[in-house]
């Protein structure tokens, strides 16, 4: 048996250009600023691949040439390719394909015992979420992925929120806490460990990937005439096909999309929020595409592959690439979280990779719109756990969520060095504590998709879709036991999902329930005269802006140091907001500067588009 992840084909977007590009005998290919291209030869890449996935170690010998030929033949046989022993084009294409990070031969480590669970009710916990999808969409993808296996076995899957689960699920990037780092966008998509204690059974997903349902970014439109419907990609406009948001047909440059497959026919559309047009990679630090933009004196109002030998879609993040040379890749079809999760959960249940290309447990990724579990996968999982009792299996589809239980345990604290892991029992808080009676909050931050309001040891959560004020508060100490009662600001890094809290000259870093700190902000490179960090705006690509009144810094989250050429003056970059603010935070893709009872909302283009009441517009308290 085997693991998922396979060949991915990105549809080429038909772009509409105001000026036809100059005809060329060969495709134009330029080096974009900030782009790193590998100098590794095909042979070097092949050797690394064969070693990483367990083939080369099996064929070690005195003659390296013969050893590599044997390893290549073994790999070709294992992956269902033509067995030649040569590094041919089919083999190179397979090596470049997105795939699961679990080795094809052997496992990450040598684990003792039979690699299957000794019980049928498997528990799981979701540690964090990807910013690419709403949490409820991610939860549903995991539920459906588990159901793939419960349909054909006696296994059941129960989500828990406290205690120790069998399967811990997390999103992380690069070095994410285990010995097997991810490799950035594309390449390795995810990995999982076989059943057992500790890290065994856990599933990790690369947060540098673009996670979707397999058919492109899930964009919730605003305004327009489609009542907030999702974009439908691709869609037809003026007889041309668009696979991303576009400004075609508009003189104001606002990105929009069709919400049916044919705008020309149905006339249904909505506007795309800026966070859905943010670029990936490049040198623009996650800024949104700007349409139209100029490239080599031609004008484009959609993402284009012009100038790229690899035909990847990109856009400029200013109106003129020729002048500013700011750019990034456009979101593509992405990878189906459901399919990748179903594959990884197969590993977490004890399955290895399959050599059948249509099997779920085949190592390479391939999108399947009407997925059904292959007989090879069924035979493998039933060998471990037996068949499902009762009626025969039916093809998995939309399912009801498995029952969820909350397991309460006594408070336990384990401390090693400066890292603390805590499971805390939560006592009820007086429900009469009304957030609408608070005049000024200590801090406001968007964490895990919800807006959090902090005050004197308590916090209130306002979900994104909430229509009214928050209910009873929660205690900071119950959720983040290491923190003081009063904090100055907080933010969550979009890439790692780590949450940072600042209070005075100290800061704390939470990863799930584990905490690092407190540490002094001087460790970040902030001046000794900085007494507090009063606001934080996380950016893509691992950067965050830290504010202290008249000054602000840009910090690299991974290195945890501020960048050179900082601090800078707040009023020069963020004109139009008060400099005596007491908090700054990012919410729904826009910057919010708070002073007393009011907030100034600023777009990514640094334009103030609203001044509102914190109490009524953010807390959603009734006006009376």
TrEMBL record:
Ca(2+) 4 binds at residue 488. Residues 390-399 have a biased composition (Pro residues). Ca(2+) 3 binds at residues 183-184, 188, 206, 209. It is found in: Secreted, Extracellular space, Extracellular matrix. Its cofactor is Zn(2+); Ca(2+). Ca(2+) 1 binds at residues 132, 207, 209. GO terms for molecular function: metalloendopeptidase activity; zinc ion binding. Zn(2+) 1 binds at residues 176, 178, 191, 204. Zn(2+) 2 binds at residues 100, 343, 347, 353. Disulfide bonds join 231-257, 245-272, 289-315, 303-330. It catalyses: Cleavage of gelatin types I and V and collagen types IV and V. Ca(2+) 2 binds at residues 166, 202. Keywords: Calcium, Collagen degradation, Disulfide bond, Extracellular matrix, Glycoprotein, Hydrolase, Metal-binding, Metalloprotease, Protease, Repeat, Secreted, Signal, Zinc, Zymogen. Residues 400-424 have a biased composition (Low complexity). Hemopexin repeats lie at residues 438-483, 484-528, 530-577. Gene3D superfamilies: Collagenase (Catalytic Domain) (3.40.390.10), Fibronectin, type II, collagen-binding (2.10.10.10), Hemopexin-like domain (2.110.10.10). Pfam families: fn2, Hemopexin, Peptidase_M10, PG_binding_1. One of its GO terms (biological process) is proteolysis. Residues 1-19 form the signal peptide. Residues 382-429 are annotated as: Disordered. The active site is at residue 344. Belongs to the peptidase M10A family. Matrix metalloproteinase that plays an essential role in local proteolysis of the extracellular matrix and in leukocyte migration. Could play a role in bone osteoclastic resorption. Cleaves KiSS1 at a Gly-|-Leu bond. Cleaves NINJ1 to generate the Secreted ninjurin-1 form. Cleaves type IV and type V collagen into large C-terminal three quarter fragments and shorter N-terminal one quarter fragments. Degrades fibronectin but not laminin or Pz-peptide. This is Matrix metalloproteinase-9. It comes from Leptobrachium leishanense (Leishan spiny toad).
